[in-house]
Amino acid sequence: MTDITVCGDLLFVTTKDDPSPGTLMVFATTKSTGFGGFVAPRLIQTIEVGIGPDSVIINKACTLAATANEGEGVYDDAIGLMNPEGSVSIIRGPFDDVNNAPTVTQVTLNKWTDEELIDMGVHLPLSLNAMKYWNMMEGINFTAAIESYTPATVLEPEYLAWSGDESKLYVNLQENNALLIVNVANNEAESINA
Asked: Where do the DSSP E strands lie in 35-187?
């Protein structure tokens, strides 16, 4: 479990299983039965989101959710570094209806090249050139990560906040020392600010 929040009568929980996609689980909240008794939360939905959802945020109407999917790298002795892409998942309800699955849209972060990100002042903790350099060292295997590299593999969303009118998401790219702005209406990454 990576994050938990309540909206109305719903409980939202994110879980991750890097390097596989994570989940957003939606529960009906705990209810009092009177006289000190309670009914435990009941699972309504299990929704697949991006890889490594570190946090979840829900709009005021409880109809829209978003997850910051860090896509954190995992090192395996046999395979080497597996470094999935960071992303933001936008999930549109209803969340309280077991018969209607919410829709999930992945906002990809491959809008910029390494050079553009560096020119904007965005920190790239393990760029393609850095991986090629370190891959020459004994005991380090970045071959798979180099072959699957995109700039989004080094952009790592951690936390989210809504704009006042909930039309935009502000996403903290902590390792990158940057802020990503996502347009919710068109599911698009608009800008990155270092």
From this structure: 37-39, 42-51, 53-58, 64-69, 74-76, 80-82, 87-92, 103-108, 159-162, 168-173, 178-183
Looking at the DSSP bridge assignments, the partners of residue 159 are 172
Q: What is the DSSP string of 99-143?
A: TSPPEEEEEE-TTS-HHHHHHTT---TT-HHHHHHHTTSTT---H
**Calpha distance 128→147 (Å, rounded):** 10
Helix, strand or coil, per DSSP, at residue 116 = helix
pTM to 2 decimal places? 0.92
Retrieve residue 11's tokens: 């409980």
Domain ranges in the chain? 3-31+41-193
pLDDT in tens, 5-62: 999 999 999 999 988 999 999 999 877 777 777 778 899 999 999 999 999 999 999 9
Query: Distance between CA atoms of 110 and 128, rounded to whole angstroms?
Result: 14
